[in-house]
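Provenance

Sequences were taken from public entries as deposited. Structures were produced by running a predictor on each sequence independently, with no templates supplied. The record for glutathione transferase from Pterocles burchelli is shown for reference.
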Amino acid sequence: MSGKPKLHYFNGRGRMETIRWLLAAAGVEFEECFLESKDDLTTLQKGGFLLFQQVPMVEIDGMKMVQTRAILNYIAAKHNLYGKDLKERALIDMYVEGTTDLSELLMMYPFQPADKKEQHFATLVDKATNRYFPVYEQVLKDHGQDFLVGNQFSRADVQLLETLLMAEEYKADILAKFPLLQKFKARISNIPPIKKFLQPGSQRKPPTQEKDVPKVMKIFY
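Predicted structure for glutathione transferase:
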């Protein structure tokens, strides 16, 4: 039996993508078991594998973990990506919650009805450039260090980079007014395990397209 974590989700980004990012950043190889139909999800549910009847689910260290934040917290703590003390962990948590709020907006864009896409896009650009990115730009300016917390690579850096790259997929020049975030993006992207994950052929998933939406909806609804 393989000792690699096993990820159960559909073959796309969704809420599993940040888990993929964090495992990759930690240099951990993982396997994936893709849900292809509603029956696949039902099998997991009826088999008692999903504590709250939903995915993502990750088999790791003898556990069948659910709830995205719980999974990410476990991986980060296990692989020394969660700060050196409680204060650093609190900062990391705050920064991560901010990036999560923004990434949720980005993630849900393809699922918006046609008549709401324009407004959703305007909202996500506004919040990215006026609420979230200025915070991280100021953090980097204030402490002048390479990483967000404790001058040490952490999950906050991983999740911010993921969100920055996702935002650029929607608007290529979205970082134009944030020079420190541009430098941060380049710096973190060149950390060896991150650089490897960004190469073609990795387990990083492409952006969700409108054509993917019906298949995803059939699995979950």
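Strands lie at 6-9, 31-34, 57-60, 63-66.
The chain has nine helices and four strands.
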